[in-house]
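We give this protein:

***
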Amino acid sequence: MAAAAQANPGADTYELTRGVNPWLIAASVMLATFMEVLDTAIASVALPYIAGSLSATTDEATWVLTSYLVANAIVLPASNWFSLRFGRKRFLMSCVAIFTIASFACGAAWSLPVMLLARVVQGAGGGALQPLSQSILLESFPPAKRGAAMAVFAFGVVVAPVLGPTLGGYLTDTYSWRFAFYINIPIGLLALYMINRFIHDPPYIKNAKAPAFDNIGFGMLVVWTGALQVILDKGQEVDWFGAVWLRWACVAMIVSFVWFVYRSWHCKYALVNLKVFKDRNFLIGSILIFLFGVGIYSTVTVLPLFYQELLGYTAFTAGLVVAPRGLGAILGMPVIGFLSNKLDPRWLLTFGFLTFGLTTLYFGSITLDVSPTTLFLPILITGFGLSFVFVPISTAAYGTLQNEQIGNASGIFNLMRNVGGSIGISVATTMLARRAAVHQNEIINQVPQSGQAFENAVKNLQHAFAGAFGPSNTLPPAQGNLYNQLIRQALSWAFVDVFRWLSLLCFFCVIVVWFFKKVKPGKGPAGAH
């Protein structure tokens, strides 16, 4: 059967699923994926509350996010080896159980070190959920229905980061930040039941013998992913290469990354087989999912910041304002599930990236006068466009791979998206700080303090404040008010710059899309040209 599966993957999905309805399998793995991706976003809203409750600074509390991402990234590429060694179903259930127990530990944490330890364990448990779920989903459906199946998977990956801030803000404001972690417990228990009931290992997994564990490759993976995350997280705070320790961290990252790539390419029993990049479609798909990670994570992070920092919205209100993106993604899933089996994925990707790019460009015209509903339609359209990106990327990237390659490829594919997201968030926040400083200088040059316009503004404010501060004490508050206006306007233009550059990234992705080989709609490897 293993040989048959290799010769004609997807030909006998009945044996792979043991007669279980594949949509029950899709629901089982989507539940686990939704839980893991939701937790990535939900904790970010609760950071200030976590810091206050655990007697930590805001900077120290950011390690709650960083520690999770590092552990998550480390396990992603190694998930295929663990599946071969312990069995994919057993490994998936173990990951869900670890994630659920660690979620309880996070919610019950009484100090920052305990929280960080629990987050590391949680990240390690959650790291394999996405690649395992994706590979199970792709193998459980015949090629003609894989597009619809990936639409279900995309529901968890695309909608969860959007719903996370809203749900996290509601739970934190209404109950406690601890419930942002406790919410994973019932979801995890339901996922465990469904996985145990409906999912089975295919024959090639059962008959496979895992090679010896690649200790050196795993060590290099730990070093370069950990160093990369620390650099991205702390770079802006220490003026990037102005800090000696950051320069040494960059050296460690580069050396370990080069060693990891060399070993993964040349070693017969490497932890990750990078030769899957010889497949042109998978290579292009990995590049696109990396750029997609940069775009979606940056937008999801930057837009709520605009509402919170410039317009004074609460975390929950800002989450509600950007929530239409999730609604748009939900509306787009049935459409893409239908069209993915009828149209060339390249046309769907072109539409998705163009839509995402045009709406992001529209965000580039944002001002401080926007109301909560001003961007409702563009945000809704953005979510709709995103559903036309994730599913066709996966269909085209995996379309020319054999089933036996999907497990290894899925770990790499998801790692590329996560790394792209981390880099995108870091670059976006750095650009906001740097461009705000540039615009502040430009405004000062255009409106000098010795100019008539500035002096008139100060006099008008002094007159307005005279009743509150007295005629002789109005100069400091008047100047302070103008300075606050200067900072807000400069930061507003910085947000405009970030949105416009993100739109250019999306338009560049449209060009990259057409480097894919054509994959006939509804076809697997046999249908590739």
Remarks:
- Confidence is low (pLDDT under 50) at residues 1-15, 523-529.
